[in-house]
Amino acid sequence: MDVSLEVFLIIVGMGLVTYATRGGGLWMMGRIKLSPRFEAGLRYVPGAVFISMIAPALFTGGLAELAAGIITGAIAVRTRNLLLAMIIGVLAVWLFRQFR
After folding, report:
1. What values do phi and psi take at 45, rounded to 5?
2. Phi, psi at residue 32, to the nearest 5°?
3. Which pLDDT tens digit goes with each residue over 42-65?
4. Could you state, in order of their start, the residue ranges of all structural domains in the chain?
5. Helix crossing, 82-98 with 63-79: angle to 10°?
6. Torsions phi, psi of 84, nearest 5?
7. What is d(CA 57, CA 67) in angstroms, rounded to the nearest whole number?
8. Can you list the alpha helix ranges (DSSP code H) found in 30-62?
């Protein structure tokens, strides 16, 4: 595989820009005093991002995806163990898809 110098520099440049934006954000957030209310709101961001990725698959998928989503949600609420819920959800959607 032969990669030209131009392609190599573009890839390295994109990596540096990505690192700079992430590192710069962490650096900046370490120097800003946030209100307790704003900090509390930021704690919900990962869950909101996760739901925004999962919801379209649940509602545009078939019955297997919807059933697996319901099972996953029930396991998560019941056990409060997200890893266990995700594992069971993946197994459930796989199992339901086998019977299509």
Report:
1. -60, -45
2. -105, 135
3. 788 877 787 888 888 888 888 889
4. 1-32, 45-100
5. 160
6. -60, -45
7. 12
8. 36-42, 45-60
